[in-house]
Design goal:
Helix content: 40-55%
Bound molecules: adenosine-5'-triphosphate, magnesium ion
Largest sheet: 5 strands, mixed
CATH superfamily of the largest domain: ATPase, nucleotide binding domain
Number of strands: 10
Mean pLDDT: 95
Order of helices and strands: EEEHHEHEHEEEHHHHHEHEH
CATH class of the largest domain: Alpha Beta
Structural class: alpha/beta
Radius of gyration: 20 Å
CATH architecture of the largest domain: 2-Layer Sandwich
Distance between the termini: 10 Å
Length: 316
């Protein structure tokens, strides 16, 4: 097949990372990502008003870095994250992309952030369709069915009913005073703990996910130890937490594989950086696609590769 070169400038501002990536044919020429975590960690969560203001200030600095090093006149198009995300933050990326497109006389394409998480694994794998995708992030826990990489062929089987899985990691880590975002801290502590506490979760027959009862169970357990002034064994709590929180993901993904017989299983989103989850999911299907760690949490490169797949007019 003829290889048509495509160069994309992609912008991601849906939450608390300002990220711009210059991409060409599955390769990243340069990605700049500036995280706001240092600020938001003082509050244990994102402050939307600050996030938008920070994006507005940072994105100009990032563009100047690009302009000083690369000729942006030779890009084919611009892609930006349209939704889902914080409305003010998304708006900064959108206006910026549109203005840049106008100045450079380039087409500007909106991209769905969740599609970005799904196709983050396309950097190191070829996706064969039909596929099932499990998305586990700060705001979403979802199972998708894909017949191709085009939006019309990407269908939601089920998703977040209350707290998303990443949010539960962050809230429990906050209760244990481990740091923000909590996922990597719990991941690290769990490796040294024993899975001896029963935090089991009831399952239902849908593809939806509910973690709020589980979150309350874990936090109540810690509260009761605090009240009784008993030792809080953080490593065992983290190991037991991970032992149970992943079980609905495994059970429901297995069920989707049985029902849809996919040729690929895709994992994506910030929680896909978790070492235990990566191992467990890779056992479910012979063709399991897991993104490189750098493409698990928010980044503009995943938006670029998604735009290549959806707006490049040919397969990669
Ligand atoms: N090793 C890890 N184990 C578990 N969770 C992790 C790990 N690394 C990161 N996370 C979690 O990933 C989440 C951030 O993921 P991501 O950047 O995809 O979320 P988001 O963009 O804010 O949400 P969404 O994509 O739903 O809009 C945080 O909740 C963080 O705790
Ligand atoms: Mg995300």
């Amino acid at each position: 097949m003829e290889v048509i070169k495509i160069k994309i400038l992609a912008i991601e501002t849906s939450h608390d990372d300002t990220s711009v990536s210059l991409y060409e044919n599955k390769k990243i020429i340069k990605e700049y990502t500036i995280s706001q975590t240092k600020f938001h960690k003082n509050f244990g969560g994102t402050i939307p008003e600050y996030a938008s203001r920070h994006h507005a200030q940072t994105i100009i600095k990032i563009l100047n870095n690009f302009k000083n090093k690369y000729d942006l006149n030779d890009i084919d198009h611009i892609a930006f994250t349209r939704k889902p995300g914080l409305i003010g933050s998304l708006h900064v990326g959108r206006i910026f992309a549109k203005a840049l497109g106008y100045a450079l006389n380039k087409k500007v394409f909106p991209i769905n952030h969740i599609h970005g998480h799904i196709f983050a694994s396309a950097f190191n794998h070829n996706i064969i369709y039909p596929a099932i995708a499990l998305i586990v992030s700060g705001g979403h826990t979802q199972i998708w069915h894909l017949d191709s990489h085009y939006p019309k062929d990407i269908k939601l089987l089920g998703g977040t009913k209350d707290d998303a899985i990443g949010e539960v990691f962050d809230k429990v880590a906050r209760k244990l005073k481990l740091g923000f975002p909590g996922g990597p801290f719990i991941d690290g502590k769990a490796k040294k703990g024993e899975k001896i506490i029963d935090f089991s979760i009831k399952n239902d027959k849908t593809y939806d996910f509910s973690f709020s009862g589980f979150k309350t169970k874990v936090i109540n357990y810690i509260n009761s130890l605090e009240q009784k002034k008993e030792e809080i064994h953080i490593q065992n709590i983290c190991a037991s937490f991970q032992n149970h929180i992943f079980s609905p993901l495994i059970i429901k993904t297995k069920r989707a594989i049985k029902e849809y017989n996919p040729k690929s299983l895709i994992l994506g989103g910030g929680v896909s950086a978790n070492s235990e989850l990566r191992k467990k999911i890779s056992k479910l299907h012979p063709n399991t696609l897991i993104p490189e760690i750098k493409y698990t949490t928010d980044n503009a490169s995943m938006i670029a590769i998604t735009s290549h797949l959806q707006n490049g007019d040919y397969d990669i």
